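Minutes, project huddle
Topic: does the predicted pose make sense with S-adenosylmethionine bound?
PN asked that the exact inputs be recorded in the minutes so nobody has to dig through chat later. Recorded below.
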Amino acid sequence: MSRLDSFIRRLTAQKILLEDVTARLKGVEGPVLELGLGNGRTYDHIREILPDREIYVFDRDLACHPSCIPDAEHMIFGEIRDTLAYCGPRIKAPAAFIHCDLGSGDPTMDLATSSWLSPLIDKHTAAGGYVLSGLPLELPNFETLPKPEGIRPGRYHLYRKQ
Ligand code: SAM
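Predicted holo structure (tokens), as shared on screen:
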């Protein structure tokens, strides 16, 4: 598969899954955490499909399209290992949904990221809340959910906290 095909499949999977989670979120209270602003594409889509949710966005850099810059209160700069650990007083409530788009493409780096990220995700997700991640996470308090049709195995991971 060409890199172009792979890129198209990744973005298509993101859109399908973000919309799938949105449909499941009714009745689950709390903000949304977007881990990895990047270009701002998924942030922009999440704010469009979840207009009534507070969305907190985490990244070490600001490199997004100018139309996708979150306001200062909702943009949390720095290493996510630090900022997610200490964002509690700012965010106040556990998250109804955490979207993680932090894959580096390097398998060793990605394993290390999953290892420190998993307990932080657990800590900040509300009971009944959802996590969608490009990296597999170690989440013993969550169930792994089947993905909608058309998403290739291993491409994305969907979890719900029990
Ligand atoms: N979801 C974005 C989009 O749709 O445009 C793409 C996100 S991009 C793949 C990953 C982003 O995560 C990068 O902007 C990078 O700076 C950020 N990132 C990766 N690891 C991080 C870490 N440990 N702490 C803070 N930011 C991190």
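Observations noted during the meeting:
- Residues 36-42, 59-61, 63, 79-81, 101-102 surround S-adenosylmethionine (CB under 6 Å).
- The radius of gyration is 15 Å.
No decisions taken; revisit at the next huddle.
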